Amino acid sequence: MSHRWILMKISRIIGLLAAVAFIVPVVSAAGIGNENDGVAGLLSQADGYGTREYFTITQGETDTHLLNVPAGMSLLNVYLNWFTPDHSLRLEIYRPDGSLYGSYHDNYGGRLDGRIRVDISSPVSGTWRLEVHGESVTGTIPYILNCNAYA
After folding, report:
1. Using an 8 Å Cβ cutoff, are 42 and 51 in contact?
2. What is the rounded end-to-end Cα distance, in angstroms, of the chain?
3. SS3 letters across the chain
4. Which distant-in-sequence residues (6+ apart) come within 8 Å of 119 by Cβ?
5. Which pLDDT score, from 0 to 100, does residue 53 have?
6. Strands 62-69, 40-41: parallel, antiparallel or unpaired by DSSP?
7. How high is the pLDDT of residue 115?
8. How many Cβ atoms sit within 10 Å of the Cβ of residue 97?
9. Rounded Cα–Cα distance for residues 132 and 80 (Å)
C-alpha cells in the first residue's frame, strides 16, 4: 500500500470524527433540563414532541429535571428506565403550578422491572418538574429519562 492511500484513509476518518464532534453536542443539548442546565423544551417530532436523556444517580441523591410542555398537548408520556430491578428509584412529577401530580415506584406498572411509565392526559402547558430519587442504589447507576408529548 502506498503512503498516499494511507494518508487519504486517515484524513477521511479524521473528517468523520470532526463531523460527529460538532453534531453530537448540538443534539444532546436540546433535551430535558436538569437543575444545573435550567429549562429545555421538548424536541419536535413528526407526531408531537419528545426527548431522551441519560443520567446517573447514587444512593440518597435527588435529580431534578425541568420539562417545558407546549400548549395544546393531549398526552404527556414520562418513561424512567434504570435497566435492572436490583436498585430502587422513585419518580415524583410536579405540575407547573408546583402541586404534586404523583409519586411512582418500580412496581407502579405491576411488576419489578427497573422501569416506570406514566401517561398524563391533557397536560397543562408550562414547566413540569420531574424528580428522580435514588432510594436503594449501590454505587452509581445510569438511567434514562424519556419524555414525549403528543398533540
Report:
1. yes
2. 57
3. CCHHHHHHHHHHHHHHHHHHHHHHHHHHCCCCEECCCCCEECEEECCEEEEEEEEEEECCCEEEEEEEECCCCCEEEEEEECCCCCCEEEEEEECCCCCEEEEECHHHHCCCCCEEEEEEECCCCEEEEEEEEEEECCCEEEEEEEEEEEC
4. 75, 76, 77
5. 80
6. parallel
7. 93
8. 7
9. 9
Amino acid at 50: G
Of 87, 79, 64, the closest CA to residue 140 belongs to 87
Per the structure block, which three cell numbers stand in for 36? 444545573
Radius of gyration of the chain (CA): 19
Q: Could you tell me if 30 and 95 are in contact, meaning their C-beta atoms sit under 8 angstroms apart?
A: no
C-alpha to C-alpha distance for 140 and 59, rounded to whole angstroms: 8
Find the farthest-apart pair of alpha carbons in the chain and give their distance in angstroms, rounded: 68
CA gap 20, 67 in Å, rounded: 27
Q: What is the mean pLDDT of each run of 10 residues along the chain (151 residues)?
A: 65 54 32 41 50 88 93 94 93 98 85 91 96 95 92 86
Instruction: List Cβ neighbours of 116 (8 Å cut-off, separation of 6 or more).
Output: 78, 79, 80, 89, 91, 104, 105, 106, 108, 109
